[in-house]
Amino acid sequence: MRIMVIGATGTIGSTVADALTARHDVLAVSRSGPLRADLRDVASLDALFAGAGEVDAVVSCAASGGMAPLDAREDDVFWDGLDAKLIGQVDLTRRAIRHVRDGGSVTLTSGRFPGPMPGSSLGFLVNAGLEAFVHSAAIEMPRGLRLNVVSPGWVGESLEAMGLDTADGTPAARVAELYVEAVEGTAHGHTLSVSSG
């Protein structure tokens, strides 16, 4: 299959791209590589698909943001996660369905927190919104296309990079298996997480 991985230079994205490369032709997309896109810029998404042509699957691992204090003075600080992670992935889905071959798939990324914590209200809003979008939009997908979302939770390598305890993190390779399952499997309208496997 010809698979577009957006956010292919991040911790999760690079691991997902590596896992898929073993059996598929992977188009690695980032904000600064040869294939470029920014989820906050719909024109960049249109240009990406126009240049790349048809694909069998689109995987979004580029979802960032989601932590911001509720009382942040600057609106853009609070809403950046909404624009990049929620609205950006919805825009990506709406464009991808025009360029993914019949029977292909689109896989998005949400997330999980262990529980409410200061600054997490936006993240809960964005993640719940994405999962609700996927579950409801699945029935609107044309031509047998499948739509799923992976909820990776805390990734061990990211926790380590932040100098935090990695005990509650999941290795990126295990998270990548969920994306591979979403692309190669039959799930449709599902949230895939390590616990739901």
Task: Tag the structure with descriptive keywords.
Short chain dehydrogenase, Rossmann fold, alpha/beta, single chain, globular, 6 helices, 7-stranded parallel β-sheet, 197 residues
Characterise this structure:
This protein is an alpha/beta fold and about 200 residues long. It is built from 6 helices and 7 strands. Strands 3-2-1-4-5-6-7 form a 7-stranded parallel sheet, with helices on both faces. The relative contact order is 0.16.
In a few lines, what is going on in this structure?
This is Short chain dehydrogenase. The protein has 197 residues and is α/β, with parallel strands linked by helices.
DSSP E strands, number: 7
CATH class: Alpha Beta
Measured by DSSP, the beta-strand proportion falls in 15-25%
CATH fold-type name: Rossmann fold
SSE map:
Layout: E1 2-6, H1 11-21, E2 25-30, E3 35-36, H2 42-52, E4 55-60, H3 75-96, E5 100-109, H4 121-137, E6 146-150, H5 156-161, H6 172-184, E7 191-192
Parallel strand pairs: 1-2, 1-4, 2-3, 4-5, 5-6, 6-7
Helix pairs in contact: 1-6, 2-3, 3-4
